[in-house]
Specification:
Elements lengths: L3 H9 L8 E4 L7 E4 L1 H4 L9 H7 L4 E3 L3 H18 L3 E5 L2 E4 L2 H5 L4 H16 L5 E3 L3 H10 L5 E3 L5 H5 L12 H9 L5 H7 L1 H8 L1 H10 L16 E11 L2 H22 L3 E10 L4 E12 L2 H16 L7 E9 L13
Parallel strand pairs: 1-3, 6-7
Antiparallel strand pairs: 1-2, 4-5, 8-11, 9-10, 9-11
Helix pairs in contact: 4-6, 10-12, 11-12, 13-14
């Protein structure tokens, strides 16, 4: 989806259409969770402090996030995804992979399927989606980002390098700031230069990761699209457009996410015993930490404190970090825990 949170706000509030809009916290250390394309023209992006966004664009409209509303619209989007394919792998509220190979093998046109999906999403939500289509997940993701907003790009088997070669190496999955900096020192700036460096050199420099980089630079990705299993936990994740290095900004995001998780628990009549923290670096390495509580809870404050403690414990061993995704989750769910164990 295109600038999903901000687009939903502009959909619901017509007076915001065409204006620079940021979704996020308005307090002193609040960060931007999403920015409209009008705001992005001023250099504003997610994970940026709201105070800086106001300096870049004094006229920007900052609105508080409404995750319940975003989930409602997201559910409509995923309904349309499932109308096109039985195999849908959701990545977040606003992004998913679909496997439509069965329909293509049956003789349907890939382009027609993609156009149909865009049309159905627009009719169901009033919002635009950017659709990228290709023979693997890596290329489909790159295609979906190639011509935003309202993009539609198909990368065929005969045009892989035409699309990939001009891209900066950071656009490849698995290449973070440190790896990109090391490649820069070797004058490898683009995917084309990375491909031409050869797998032998990359393996010598980066080991197994070098072999994987060589495959991606050639547009090779054998990961399958997998439908999600039944969830045994409740979580809230935020993906930033740029890496976040500020610990206090991450604390703010965690507290907001804890409130959303607590709300989800309450709506489902559930309580949680275990709190989880998920962190993904700019290089797409993912770590998770969890903590079991002495009792069950659906308190935003309790969930937030536990998650912040997990973050601070991790950060104590990583003085320098670059976070691209952060998430708070709750598991060990129960609908009728012992009242004496409830934590408020």
């Amino acid at each position: 989806m295109d600038a999903f949170y901000a687009s939903v706000e502009q959909l619901d509030r017509p007076e915001l259409r065409g204006k620079a809009v940021a979704v996020g916290g308005g307090h002193g250390r609040g960060v931007v969770a999403a920015a409209s394309y009008e705001a992005r023209q001023h250099g504003i992006h997610s994970a940026m402090p709201v105070a800086r966004a106001r300096r870049l664009c004094p006229d920007i409209v900052v609105v508080s996030a409404r995750f319940a509303r975003y989930r409602e619209v997201s559910a409509r989007v995923f309904e349309q995804c499932h109308s096109v394919s039985d195999c849908v792998e959701g990545l977040s509220l606003d992004e998913a992979y679909l496997d439509v190979s069965g329909r293509v093998n049956a003789g349907e046109s890939l382009a027609v399927i993609g156009r149909l999906l865009k049309q159905r999403i627009a009719e169901a939500t009033g919002l635009t989606a950017s659709v990228g289509m290709a023979h693997n997940k890596l290329l489909a993701k790159i295609a979906s980002d190639y011509d935003k907003p309202d993009g539609f790009v198909i990368i065929g088997t005969d045009s892989v390098q035409r699309y990939l070669d001009p891209l900066p190496v950071r656009r490849l999955w698995g290449i973070g700031p440190r790896t990109a900096e090391k490649l820069r020192s070797l004058d490898i700036l683009t995917v084309g230069q990375l491909r031409n460096a050869g797998s032998d050199l990359l393996e010598q420099l980066f080991g197994r990761h070098g072999r994987e980089m060589a495959l991606r630079a050639a547009g090779i990705d054998n990961r399958a699209v997998t439908s999600r299993r039944v969830r045994r936990s409740i979580s809230q994740e935020t993906t930033f457009e740029k890496d976040v290095h500020d610990l206090e900004a991450l604390r703010d995001v965690i507290r907001d996410q804890a409130g959303e998780v607590a709300g989800s628990l309450a709506r489902r009549g559930l309580y949680a015993r275990t709190i989880m923290l998920k962190l993904r670096s700019g290089g797409f390495s993912t770590i998770s930490r969890s903590r079991s509580l002495p009792g069950h809870t659906r308190s935003a404050a309790v969930i937030g404190r536990a998650a912040v403690d997990l973050l601070e414990s991790w950060a104590g061993w990583h003085r320098r970090f670059a976070i691209r995704l952060i998430g708070v989750g709750a598991s060990g769910l129960a609908s009728h825990p012992d009242e004496s164990e409830l934590l408020e």
